[in-house]
Predict the structure.
Amino acid sequence: MATLFRLFPPAPEAKTFLLNHKPTPLFSSRKPQTTASRKSHHGIQSSKFGSFLDLKPLSEPESLDFDLSWFDPADRYRCFDVIVIGTGPAGMRLAEQVSRYGVKVCCVGPSPLSMWPNNYGVRVDEFESLGLVDCLDKTWPMTCVYIDDDKTKYLDRPYGRVGRKEFKTKLLENCASNGVRFHKAKVWKVKHEEFESSIVCDDGIELRASLVVDASGFASTFTEYNKPRNHGYQIAHGILAEVDYHPFDLDKMVLMDWRDSHMGNEPCLRANNSKLLTFLYAMPFDSIHGGQEQDGSD
């Protein structure tokens, strides 16, 4: 998960650093200024400690103005071919694709029209093959991976940032065109019988379907396993920031930066870094489009 930030274009020295792999500090000594993006309505609130991990958006996610086909509680017909729990990218894409073939689909979620909080990055050719390339709001010709201060890998495969509003609007339009119904509620319970399944929502509505698909995310309580599972996971902390200077080359998306020379000889930092591996994921933008940075932990 990431929150947007904006970056000013790098000084010429920054490009030299990236291309020549000099052991220059990752960030300049000038203090970054964290502000709201000129294109984003999300303000940023900083803690007294000044840590970006404590930054919190000042506003709620934007809600799209879109005319959906809502499920009518007064409708006695409450049986569908497929019920999709969740209105995130996975759930809505599934509903869009399945409904193309005349399958009766109902998407259920607490806020179907709210903007997704996450930012998503993808390989450009993957979205091209899905017919979604028009949903990318920024692309980079290649990506780079910094193994250490002396070794860098360049990947000649374009990378892009997904435009959340464009992507969700397109899925909503296609779902509406295909006759997908939506119900604004939180699913409390899923029941399975011999020939059909059903869901019970927090508003008391019960819906039935031949198939119920859980696309509510990794924290779902509806999926049962026949043995204990040790889930792998990744945590990402992201910000959108305006800074006076950054060291990133504008035509390269930083897919992973594993360098740790900025830690110096701090034993505590190095011990924590060895225990929980971290890397920097950065999307450098120009002064018009802004930029995104994430710190990922595996």
Remarks:
- Residues 1-40+127-162+240-298 form one domain.
- Helices lie at 12-20, 89-99, 124-129, 164-177, 267-275.
